[in-house]
Amino acid sequence: SKLTSLGQLEMTWRSRVHFHPLLVRVLHKSRLRYYGKPEKKMDMPYQAYFEVADGSGMMSMVLWNSLCPEWYNSMKVGTVLLLEQYAIKTSYPFKTQPTPGDSQMKRFATIEISLNVRDPPTKISIIPEEMVKPEWGLPEVKYRFITRSELDDLPNNHSCDVIGLVTFVGRAERARKREHGEDFWLYRWAHAIDGTSDQPFILELFATSQPDVFERIHPMTYLVCTQMRVVRDLTENPSSTIYLTTSNESQIFITGWHKGQPYTKDTKVKNFIQWTKTQSEADQMKKTVIGGYYPFPRPPNNFLKY
């Protein structure tokens, strides 16, 4: 069928009501957002953001309401979609922005694609990877993997992807979203090593929209975390309190979930797998810990400083 591109959409969207189909690849995926309120009667008040791209650049796509339970889990990072009968809206200015793996990619930030059950009823088709043709010019998913030895030189809030062998995982803890509110964030701490440093990655993992993975992180699993943010305590001793925390677009994968993921082709991921083959499982097992209370960043050594 006659296709359009994201670049053409940005130039012509104001003068059109109906748009030609789009062929795009999912590059980033946000966690699922529930926006229900007791006084508003909505069946499925869900929303999810995706960043999708074709040969012309990258744009946000929003999945609304009952389309979320139907499609959210199928639309993975790397999935190719054919979209028909979608709507175009001006962008919501306050949403979070993932850091693209390809810094050269053009970003269309003024508009976003809106997928709804009606007005108009969107038709979504997933194209299997083996049927994707090179001449479509769809970009590959690119990552920004770092090793533990590179972490100490990175600035606060820098975005990166990591892979490591889990040596510690804490219990799930809760923190209030707002001081007197009733909503909580669920999170857990983990340590992962990659053989490039004596120090582990310290990871603050908030529950994303992947409960099956979040609950099964355990020592000795290969853990991949994407779109993580560097957090540094710039006041005291910066190197001692550096850790990584999840962002709205973070994805977490553990052993059993890696097959077919786009990051398996990344050089640093391949290097990590080579390193794990040189390690003795029994030796690593002796160093692993699970559960318990993990106060971090650590309180000062003496009470006066505290």
Overview of this structure, please?
- By secondary structure, this protein is mainly β.
- The chain has two domains: 6-136, Beta Barrel (OB fold (Dihydrolipoamide Acetyltransferase, E2P)), CATH 2.40.50.140; 148-305, Beta Barrel (OB fold (Dihydrolipoamide Acetyltransferase, E2P)), CATH 2.40.50.140.
- Helix content is 12%, strand content 32%.
- It has helices spanning 6-12, 67-71, 148-151, 211-214, 267-277, 281-286, and strands at 22-29, 33-34, 46-54, 57-64, 80-84, 87-90, 107-115, 123-127, 159-169, 173-176, 184-193, 201-206, 222-231, 243-246, 252-253, 289-290.
- Strands 1, 2, 3, 4, 5, 6, 7 and 8 form an eight-stranded mixed β-sheet that branches.
- The chain is globular and about 65 Å long.
- The termini are far apart.
- The mean pLDDT is 91.
Short précis:
This is RADX protein. By secondary structure, the protein is mostly beta strands.
Number of helices: 6
Radius of gyration: 21 Å
Number of structural units classed as domains: 2
Main sheet overview: 8 strands, mixed
Helix content: 10-25%
Query: Topology as H/E string?
Result: HEEEEHEEEEHEEEEHEEEHHE
Distance between the termini: 67 Å
| Count of distinct strands | 16
CATH topology of the largest domain: OB fold (Dihydrolipoamide Acetyltransferase, E2P)
SS class: mainly beta
Q: What low-confidence regions span 5 or more consecutive residues with pLDDT below 50?
A: none
Please state the average pLDDT score: 91
User: According to CATH, what is the class of the largest domain?
Assistant: Mainly Beta
Shape category: globular
